[in-house]
Structure formats: structure tokens, C-alpha cells
Amino acid sequence: MEILKGKSVYKGIAMGKVCVLKNHSDSVKRYHIDDVEAEILRVNEAKEEAINQLMQLYEKALKEVGEAHAAIFEVHQMMLEDDDYTEAIENTIRTQKINAEYATLTTGENFSQMFASMDDDYMKARAADVKDVSDRLVSVLSGAGNDTMTYDEPVIIIADDLTPSETVQLDKEKILAFATVHGSTNSHTAILARMMNIPALIGVPFDLDSIENGIIAVVDGFNSEVILNPVKEVQEKTAKAIREEKEKLQLLQSLKGKENITLDGRKIDVYANIGSVSDVAYVLENDAGGIGLFRSEFLYLGREDFPTEEEQFSAYKQVAEMMAGKKVIIRTLDIGADKQVDYFNLGKEDNPALGYRAIRICLKQPDIFKTQLRALLRASVYGNISIMYPMIISVEEVLAIKEIVEGVRQELEKDGIPYRIPEQGIMIETPAAVMISDELAQVVDFFSVGTNDLTQYTLALDRQNDKLDDFYNPHHKAILRMLEMIVKNAHAHNTWVGICGELGADITLTEEFIRMGIDELSVSPSMVLKVRKKIRETKIQ
Amino acid sequence: MKKFEYTIKDAVGIHARPAGLLVKEAKKYESKIVIEKGEKKAEATKLMAIMAMGVKCNDTVTVTVEGSDEDVAVGQMEAFFNENL
Predict the structure, then answer these.
(1) Which residues of chain B are under the pLDDT cut of 70?
(2) Number of C-alpha atoms within 13 angstroms, CB side, residue A314?
(3) Residue B20 and residue A74: Cβ atoms within 8 Å?
(4) Contact assignment for B54 to A114 by CB distance below 8 Å
(5) Contact A110/A88 with Cβ under 8 angstroms?
(6) What's the domain count of chain B?
(7) Domain extent at residue B45
């Protein structure tokens, strides 16, 4: 038995047989050839096959993970078709009279090296793409064919790191867990694991050559460890933990299709918070009544340039259609503070939480905002979309937003593009917004209380500073009184109120929320049924 | 020979995707199209060479077009830069 520590990117526990993914390029041998032209012909044929594979991968990725993640395979195709790259392989074959595999491998390494040595982080990262492309060509040349991985039973994937093409090729039905030597919390492995809700660890110091396929391993995301060849007791303990996790889930499953109603007949909506299109599957699976917070940042993060109107439109439309008439509340861009994106060029700030973020960026750089609003207004035709604006502190801001929305509406009208003006609301996450909630309620359709920021701003406690943990009290009376005030002011003007912060999922407060008259709670998809269970056990009178 | 200068507005410079589109566009013409930045230059039909120039936001590049269809090509290329970069 061997225990290795790593960094958990998704909490969960799995046990099963190991499948070690190894690279073809490790086994390429250099040998002399006589027929240079025949060797070059092989390269050209392999190139065609590789381009074919990439086209298929692009289509597959487009369906499974969306355009933004799929685009990489288009770039890979172009790299393969690059004149300099092809010429370099041909020249190596001609001048050194060596086999196509080896010529491709060395050429790939040279180009990859060129990118790796550039003084630009974005270009440095392209080295991995060149390597991925060369590896693909090598594996076609070595007769590995289309390298779709198949297994008889679900397995635990162990690898150095997963390239974009590997991640997309994996048969998602047959993966129990991931564990990789490299990769960051934002690597493909991590993103995929979160999407699929399976345990994953990165930064695990494996010696890949010494691990045999088919041995038993445990990937424990709760304790951040991988156990290879677990002894009998550990296997039994793990099996029990897995069973308990499953039972917990099953118990909750029985609540699907049931109403969110208290013993004495009070109803409250329970929606889900999501961060990407693929999370919708999780929303439906957990039977949430709608999406209470769709963070639109995923469209902006992890890429090099602003998402286009079309990209945004198709993401919003897709979610609206998948939710089939149920409410989908999309929050406009909330970049800044702890969420930084290079191409926004926001610069360093002494107080990012009190800084240039969210609606402030949108009002100062209306072009960015308008693109998103156009996409939202257009997508609203296809479902029950609501728009929510973050970080509001004044009525003037709301009026300024409405003016921009009206401008966008007129443009769409002029261009003859179908649109709908959806329900519009704001996040209540600053004490200022709470204090003037009576006035704000008159200019918006709904409030959603962002309790994380509201608590941080009200208690003057930095969320990122762990020294302050002892002072942090999410049940502070100040917050609860604020909630009461918000509901009272909102209902006086026919504005409904939801909570989309972490507090919404706090089942010790569910009863109090219902008592206050909160209309909706939006929680992470995995909490929906737990909150429903609590509601159904509660009696208000 | 025709030429124009262009200052890159795209926040990450000429990155992979626009470089790919640029190559596609440049291949439509018979003329030889060259992109220059300081001492570095690359033919517009060569993806990796363009990427390796490391053109960043606010860099100014010179684009020269030479060949039988240069009159059409130069206008189209300038339009392409304005739209994509």
C-alpha cells in the first residue's frame, strides 16, 4: 500500500482499477531510411488523418464543452497545416535520412521550445499545443490509429497531465476519478472533474513508470490523497464511505418532484446557482425549480479575448432552452476583486473588494456591457430569462443601466433582430443598497441578496483573510436585520426577494427565511434537495 | 508594392485564433504578404512564425503586399486587421 498526497479539485471518493495514460512519443525510435519520398508521403497521409481526427474532436468538444473550449482544436489543425512546420519535418527527413516519427518528434520539440522561451505567458502556454499536435501526428504514424480510449469497466485515470485532446477523448461514462502529476486548479483535468462531479486530485507525485495498469487505487478528494494497492481494511473502509455517500444521495433523490412546502403549507422557491452551461445538467438532475444565479463570468475567464455577442447569445439561449420555461436569472459580468482576467487590463488595486469591479466596469466601459446585453435580450426570446446586475449602490446606477438597455433595444429594433426585454433585478450586496432598498424596489423587478459580499462589507471583514475566521459570524444580527428590512421594503413595492449567497443553503436558517417572507433561495445544485428536505420538515406557526 | 501600418488593439496581441484567421485570409491572395515588427518579420501565410513574433497589444506592425493582386489584397488585409486585431 502506498499513500500519495495531492491537491483536491473536486471532493468525492472513488475506488477502482487504475488506467495509466502514457505518451506515445516516449517510445519513438530513430532509424535510417532510404526512400525519402516514401517517408514524406507517409507524413502527408498521416497529416490528413490527424486533421480528420481534429475535426471530429472539434465537433465532439463543441457539443460537450462549448465553443470556447473547442476552438483549441481548430488552432491545432492550423498548426498541422503550417508551412514552416511541415517543411521542417520534410527537411529533417531529407537531410538526415531518418524516419517520419522521429523527424516529427524533433521538429515538434524545436517549435515547442521556441514558444516556451518567449517572454509572454500566453505564448509560453502554446508550447503544450505544439507538443499535443506533434504527439498526435507521431501516434498516427506509429499506427496507433484514432486513439480513443476504451475500457471494459469504469477506471481511475492516472496521468502526467491531460492535454485538451485527451480530456475530450475520454469516455466520460467510464471514469471513476482522475489523478495527475501536474496541472493547476484551472487545468483541463480540474475543469472536467468539476463538470462531471467526480473526484480528482492534481499535483500527486506519481512515478508513472512503476504503476501497473489494473491495480486497485482509491482517490479520496475529502482527504486529498491517492492510495495505491490499498490493504483490505482500507478497501473495506472506502467501500463503506462510498456506500454512505450513495445512500445519502438516494435518500435525497426520493424528494425529487416534491414541492418546497412547509408542514403548514408555506411555499418557497428553491433554485440553483451555476457557473457554466454544462452545470445545467446538474440543475435538472437535482430538480431545482430554476436557476437563481447564473454567473456569466465563465464566458470571460480562461480565455485570451472578450467573448463575442454570438458566443454569449448561444450560451444563454442554450441554457434558456434546456430549462424549458423555468426561470434563468443571469447575472451580468462580475469581474474584478478576487476574479481577475488579464485582457481586461484592470491593473493592481490596494482594495480590490472596494475597487473597480462588476457593474462599475460595465458602466465605465459600456461597449463590454452592451455586447452582453444584446446577447441577453436576444436570448430572452428563447426562454424565461431574467437579468441581474451586481454591486449596485444607488438608484442612479440602475437608471444608467436602464438607459443603456434602452439604447441596445433600439439598436436591435433598428436591425430587425428578434429580442425581448426580460425581467430585471439587482443583487443586494452592499449596505448602501440595503439602506435604500425602499427606493431601489421601485425601479427593479426583483432583489437577490448576495450574502457573502453583504456580510464582508457589513462586518468589515475580509473574506480572503483566514486570520479573521474567528470574527466571522454569518448569523450576525446585523445581517439578519438587514434581510428583514430588505424583504419589507421589497414587498411594499411588489418586488420579490431571493438569496443567492452561501447563507441561502444554511439549513439552520431556512425556517427564519420563510418566516421573514423570503420568496426564493438559490443554492448550489447539490444542496437543492437538502434544502427541500428541511423546508418539508419545517412548521412556521 | 503596397503597404500599411496598423496598431494592434486586441488585448492579448496576435494570439492563436486571429493568427489562424489571418493565415486563412492571406492564403486567398496570390501576392506575398509580409508582417513586420521592428527586426522581426514573418510571411502572413505562416501561422507559427506569426505567433512567434510575439506581437502584443499596442504594438505597431507594418504589412507589405506585393504581387499581381496587391491592389485588392492590401484593402482586404487592412479591413481584416481592423475587424479582428
Answers:
(1) none
(2) 10
(3) yes
(4) no
(5) yes
(6) 1
(7) 2-84
Q: Which three cell numbers stand for residue B22?
A: 489571418
The residue annotated as part of the active site, out of B15, B32, B40, B56, is B15
The average confidence (pLDDT) of chain A is 88
Tens digit of pLDDT for each residue in A151-177?
A: 568 899 998 887 666 766 677 678 899
Question: Where does the pLDDT of residue A146 fall: very low under 50, low under 70, confident under 90, or very high at 90 and above?
Answer: very low
The C-alpha atoms of residue B63 and residue B50 are separated, in whole angstroms, by 12
Q: Which residues of A292-313 are buried (b: 16+ CB within 10 A; e: fewer)?
A: bbbbbbbbbbebbbbbebebbb
ipTM computed for the complex: 0.84
Mutate to test the interface with A, among B22, B27, B48 (most CBs of A within 10 A): B48
Q: How far apart are CA B33 and CA B39, in angstroms?
A: 16
**Distance (Å) from the alpha carbon of B52 to chain A's nearest alpha carbon:** 7
Cβ contact, residue pair B11, A71, below 8 Å: no
Domains in chain A, ordered, with CATH? 2-21+149-234 (3.50.30.10), 24-141 (1.10.274.10), 258-424+500-511+519-537 (3.20.20.60)
Contact criterion met (CB < 8 Å) for A126 and B10 = no
Q: Which of B17, B47, B54 sits opposite A118 (nearest CB)?
A: B54
Q: What number is the average pLDDT over the span A316-322?
A: 92
